[in-house]
Amino acid sequence: MRKFKKCLITGVTGSCGSYLAEHIYKKNKKIQIHGIYRSKGYLEVLKKNIDQKQLFLKKIDLQKFDFLKKYLFKIKPDVIFHVASNADVRDSFENPIKFVKNNNIITTNLLEAIRQAKLQSLVIICSSSEVYGNVPKNKQPISEFEKMNPINPYAATKAFQDMISSIYFKCFDLKIIITRMFSYTNARRTNLFQSAFALQIAKIEKNKQKILKHGYLGSKRTFVDIYDAMEAYWLTALKGKIGEIYNIGGNKVISVKKFLSILIKNSTTKIKTRLDKKLIRPKDLILQRVNCKKFIKHTGWKPKVTFQSSVAKLLEECRKRA
Predict the structure, then answer these.
(1) What is the count of structural domains for the chain?
(2) Which of 56, 179, 206, 296 stands 20 to 30 A from 8 (CA)?
(3) How far is CA 47 from CA 150, 160, 189, 260, 263, in A?
(4) Structural domain boundaries, residue 161
């Protein structure tokens, strides 16, 4: 099992990055947690939940290559979690150029800066199951051998990220592991349908909103709790094999419609819903079931939080935010 003294998280003030920083700190109180951020996001939350002696945050635009390279050479992290990206699938249909420019450049800049600085850092590329697109039912659960077939601009940028990372591993000997996370609960990211639902319910309960608006409800996904997702990332760094691609996800398969109905049942008031055509994507995922046997075999990871507990946690955190 690997040991680390310095950890770096890109996009540390974002929804996933902030959860990951908090999780790593809970797992190892002695590790230095360095973080790059572009916008404030959950900056104050991190300062509140992590000992300031162990937290080192730097505002850097990952598109500024020279600044990034100097920063990496200065801190020389043992492990880097690349979480930063524009991740709003719906928005990527409206602004594909913005997504391509940002996501492709920041990932290439990070890898090239590591190469030029001659760092020996372990790099965890936090990719997405979105790269698989709509896989035929007879080829599911989806394994790492399934070809990438993205169906939205965001997913295309993640596919590029995976491919350029593989090139830097194969051609430049960077120590890279790619993870492809399937759906997980994340109360801090409001553009995910489950958190968007939960936050609207919380607002309706407080009389701040009257009707819950939703998009397409027919998609079926596997779900895993935020705690289990962050633990998976941490175990990837500790035990994952360099050069591997790992699918990560839960074993609960449920439709978006059913997820919404369960959230509504957990509400303290009557919830009215309405289809909002503005929330419907030009193309959407139909079914995604995950095969993460390789990841479980290599790391010993398994989900610990039950689905019902996860839904309750999500709703409670959104109530606090509302």
Answers:
(1) 1
(2) 296
(3) 37, 33, 19, 33, 31
(4) 6-186+225-249+290-303
